[in-house]
Write a structure and sequence with these properties.
The chain is of the alpha+beta class and 173 residues long. The protein contains 3 helices and 7 strands; from the N terminus they run αβββββββαα. The strands form 2 sheets. A 5-stranded antiparallel sheet has the order 1-2-3-6-7. A two-stranded antiparallel ribbon has the order 4-5.
């Protein structure tokens, strides 16, 4: 497994709509392993392929936060939301591509998602709570949308300026 660098906003690759994954193969399974390792190392609870520079529709997530509980890594290839609840939840979201910046985002409280698993089978599951927020956040990445796109223009501009400054500092280091 290889830890992959995570793209930092603003990066044009984070705003691209990703292409569907044509087939599950060993290269894709290696990417999934790398993404899970990168996500856990960051540490985070979700990571989408475009965040590591791969513009394909794949995400990984694991919303188990209790260190005593067994991890529940999930890999979703070509995920699509098939149903959303009318009820909503507001979570303070963050993003590995926008480090140390947070904002309240309101999303459907529950969603049903269909995807292809790494064995090629089709899966469908209903998510709620943090899992629902996370899967919607990561699917947004596949559609070129960031959590800051839900925030007001002033807050979004302030965060973008902070990220530009962070990137300049990283380039000098």
């Amino acid at each position: 497994m290889t830890l992959r660098p995570i793209l930092i906003h603003p990066d044009p690759r984070l705003k691209k709509v990703c292409d569907p994954v044509p087939a599950v193969d060993d290269t894709l399974r290696r990417l999934a392993d790398d993404m899970l390792a990168t996500m856990y190392d960051a540490p985070g609870i979700g990571l989408a392929a475009p965040q590591v520079g791969v513009t394909r529709r794949m995400l990984v997530m694991d919303c188990v936060k209790d260190s005593r509980a067994a991890p529940q890594p999930m890999v979703l290839v070509n995920p699509e939301i098939t149903w959303t609840s009318e009820a909503v939840n507001t979570y303070e979201e963050g993003c590995l591509s926008i480090p140390e910046q947070y904002g309240d985002v309101t999303r459907p409280a529950e969603v049903r998602v269909r995807w292809t698993a790494l064995d090629g089978s089709t899966k469908e599951e209903q998510f709620d709570g943090l899992w629902a927020t996370c899967v919607q956040h990561e699917i947004d990445h596949l559609n070129g949308k960031l959590f800051i796109d839900y925030l007001g223009p002033l807050k979004r501009q302030m965060i973008t300026r902070k990220m530009e400054k962070l990137k300049r500092g990283m380039a000098r280091a």
